[in-house]
Structures are given as structure tokens and as C-alpha cells.
């Protein structure tokens, strides 16, 4: 009984951090399960719990694209722009052909008022993508529009719509592209 009480107190202590498994042993909760938990917590707005699940992932699994994607999602939802920029930049270094890292990096820069830098990030990423990205060109259109470059904005928006025509409705209602319609 007394041992159970001590264990409950320890687990309920907010400073409690699980210890690393001993050499040769596996973690109690597999990474794919922690990712499921973290994703669910993010969807529910339980960002502290999501962060704890991601923090508990160890070793090489921390560099898994799914882990880094969820980490970026966590920073996006918690509006931690500097951390999002760092994580997204690292994502682009590890997987330069993936669109998500470039978009998240640019978004973080936009949120801290660095619009020209956001545009530069997107321009750097565009030729590196494994598959042409509608989202990246759409974000470039938004940056160009906000920077007062409507010709470039239209060109990027056309590229985006050629890749994914379903973005047309979004573009018509996007405040960032308002200057193109007036």
C-alpha cells in the first residue's frame, strides 16, 4: 500500500520525467503510439500533453519525419514562431524535397514580421521539391501580393492553380490576395 502511494505521488508530480530505458531495453510506449497520442492532444488543444509525448520520444526516432512534422504542428498551434522557424529550417535541411518544411518556415517568418525573408525561403525551396507544390506557390503568391508585387503574385497563383485547381475558392477569399482582385 505504502509503495503504491509513493508511486502515485511520483507519477502525479508535474516535474516527473520518465527515465531513459536501460541499454538493450525498449521504451515502454512505442514511438508510433506516442505520435498518435500527441496528434490527438494537438487536435484537442491539449498542447502541454502533446509536448510531453513528443519530449518522451528518444534516440534516432526524434529525427523521424513524422516526429518533426508533429513538432512543427505543435509549435504552429501554440504560436511559438521562433521554435517553429528553427524546427522547420531543420526539416528543410533533412528533407529538402518536402514542401511542408519550407511552408512552415516561411509562415513562422511571416508571423514575426519578416515577410521578405519568408519569400526568400519559399523561393529557395521551390526548385528543391520532389513534387511541385501547390501550397508553396500559393504562399509565394501571398508574399508577393503583400509585398506589393501583383504581377509576381498572379504568376505564382497561376502555378499553384495549375497544380491544384481546388485552391481557387481559397484564393478568392484570402485576405492576403485581396490586392489581386481590386
Descriptive overview:
- This protein is mainly alpha-helical and 182 residues long.
- It is 67% helix and 0% strand.
- It has two domains: 30-78, no CATH class; 98-182, Serine Threonine Protein Phosphatase 5, Tetratricopeptide repeat, CATH 1.25.40.
Shape: elongated
Note the total helix count: 11
Give the proportion of residues in helices.
55-70%
Task: Count up the domains.
Answer: 2
Helix-strand makeup class: mainly alpha
In short:
The chain folds into 2 domains: 30-78, no CATH class; 98-182, Tetratricopeptide repeat domain (Serine Threonine Protein Phosphatase 5, Tetratricopeptide repeat, Alpha Horseshoe).
Keyphrases for this structure?
single chain; 182 residues; mainly alpha; Serine Threonine Protein Phosphatase 5, Tetratricopeptide repeat; 2 domains; 11 helices; disordered N terminus
How is this fold's topology laid out?
Elements: H1 2-12, H2 31-43, H3 47-55, H4 65-77, H5 81-94, H6 99-111, H7 115-125, H8 134-146, H9 150-163, H10 167-173, H11 178-181
Amino acid at each position: 500500500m505504502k509503495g503504491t502511494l509513493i508511486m502515485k505521488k511520483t507519477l502525479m508530480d508535474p516535474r516527473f520525467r520518465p527515465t531513459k530505458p536501460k541499454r538493450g531495453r525498449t521504451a515502454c510506449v512505442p514511438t508510433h503510439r506516442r505520435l498518435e497520442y500527441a496528434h490527438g492532444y494537438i487536435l484537442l488543444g491539449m498542447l502541454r500533453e502533446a509536448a510531453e509525448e513528443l519530449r518522451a520520444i528518444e534516440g534516432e526516432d526524434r529525427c523521424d519525419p513524422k516526429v518533426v512534422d508533429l513538432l512543427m504542428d505543435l509549435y504552429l498551434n501554440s504560436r511559438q514562431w521562433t521554435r517553429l522557424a528553427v524546427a522547420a529550417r531543420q526539416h528543410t535541411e533533412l528533407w529538402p524535397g518536402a514542401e511542408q518544411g519550407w511552408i512552415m518556415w516561411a509562415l513562422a517568418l511571416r508571423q514575426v514580421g519578416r515577410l521578405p525573408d519568408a519569400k526568400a525561403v519559399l523561393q529557395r525551396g521551390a526548385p528543391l521539391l520532389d513534387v511541385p507544390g501547390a501550397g508553396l506557390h500559393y504562399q509565394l503568391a501571398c508574399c508577393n501580393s503583400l509585398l506589393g508585387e501583383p504581377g509576381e503574385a498572379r504568376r505564382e497563383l497561376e502555378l499553384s492553380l495549375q497544380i491544384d485547381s481546388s485552391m481557387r475558392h481559397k484564393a478568392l477569399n484570402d485576405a492576403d490576395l485581396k490586392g489581386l482582385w481590386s
